Amino acid sequence: MIPVLKPLGWESIESGVRIVLDPRESIELADEDGSIAALLTLLTEGRHDAAGLYHALNPAFPAVSREDVLDAIGALDELRLIEDRDRTGDLTEDERLRHFSNLAFLRTFSTLEASAETMVRRLRDSHVLMLGVGGLGSNVLQNLCGLGVGQLTLVDRDDVEPRNFARQFVYRAQDIGRPKIERAADWVREFDPQIKVRTIRADFTDAASVAEVVDSTRPDAVCAGVDSPAEIDQWVNAACVRAGVPFVRGGMMVTEGVIWSVQPGQSACLACPTDSDDSSGRVANSLLHQQGVARINRGAGPVATLLGSLVSFELLRYLTGFTAPRYAGASVVIDLAGDCDLTITARSRRPDCPVCGSELPAPEPEAVAAAGG
Ligand SMILES: [Zn+2]
Questions:
Q1: Is 70 domain-assigned?
Q2: How far is the CA of 155 from the centre of ligand 1 (A)?
Q3: What's the 174 CA to ligand 1 centre distance in angstroms?
Q4: Are residues 217 and 288 in the same domain?
């Protein structure tokens, strides 16, 4: 392990050193004897492992022990200021150019254990199942391809129609009447031939049909963008929780965008019971499936791309681990009539949940009999 300082600004000040990685945050470290500044200089060079750093510092700073050096490396890593040079630079020149902005973004969050290159490789090794390539899915699809997700499975039942053109930008006039999955897959191949893409033309008619697709494709994450039938979100939730696959859902109701994600085994799932005195009063699922009037799709282009971006961002969290999933077990509501402000309402995982609960009660005999009848 060769710790190397990330591209950042730092300077010696009266009481120590000031380090700036993000303009919003200035970190000041005490440095009475100047050893921290000397360490940062060595880390900028990125030539030494921990033992080498100790030996390089020792002549000028004999009081600095090996333990001190290890502690300092640990502290700088916790602040996300250093990477392991052994875990960087293992992409080809073409790959570095292809992922230029991805690497630059991810480098802000990288650690000794996971470099930006490590996270790009995770994306390349990832498989995302896209349930629907319509208003949400087609926008997420473009983002995932830009991020370089290596494998995509596209599921949809619809053909391209004129009404798609307000917000689904992978489709062209000449594609009207053609299955969406076919054109979307062609778009992926034309955009980046290295991405493996397969298609499944399927209509979800029950919970089993969703579970079959999730179980047979074994994705790393699911993007859920199917709006009907009304039970579809519970079916996706059940299939993903049982398969241990995280999913992210985006949709909208009238002038509110809605997003949630579920991290099986960690977060609340969509079936987790909510307390009746829940002051938020917003069970995400019901937002999308109230009376018929709520189901008129009002997702114009900017709305669909905004939701698609936030869903893609959450998928990026799941796939790379650059930060923890932000919307797991939460309902996110975006005020599209206002300033697009986000309201995030966390929900608690419930042990009595029929899907993800750990304390399922034994079925009552009469209930079994009723189900059997
Ligand atoms: Zn649950």
A1: yes
A2: 25
A3: 44
A4: yes
Specify the CATH number for the domain of residue 47.
Answer: 3.90.930
- 140 shares a domain with 61: no
Distances from the Cα of 9 to the Cαs of 21, 109, 242, in angstroms?
Answer: 6, 16, 47
pLDDT tens string 162-219: 999 999 999 999 999 999 999 999 999 999 999 999 999 999 999 999 999 999 999 9
- Which of the residue ranges 50-59, 112-121, 256-265, 282-291 would you say has the lowest mean pLDDT? 282-291
From the CA of 354, how far away is ligand 1's center (Å)?
A: 7
CATH number of the domain where residue 277 is located? 3.40.50.720
Buried b (16+ CB within 10 A) or exposed e, 174-211: ebeeebbbbbbbebbeeeeeebebebbebebeebeebb
Residue range of the domain that includes 262: 125-346
| Residues flanking ion ligand 1, Cβ below 5 Å | 269, 271-272, 353, 355-356
Phi-psi label, residue 129: left if phi above 0, alpha if psi -120 to 50, beta otherwise:
beta
Query: Which pair of tokens denotes residue 29?
Result: 């470290």
CA distance 44 to 79: 16
Neighbour count for residue 141 (Cβ, 10 Å): 30
Question: For the residues 11-21, what does the mean pLDDT come to?
Answer: 91
One domain for residues 75 and 131: no
* Residue 169 shares a structural domain with residue 314: yes
The model's pTM is 0.89
User: Do residues 152 and 291 both lie within one domain?
Assistant: yes
How many domains, the chain?
2
d(CA 290, CA 249): 17
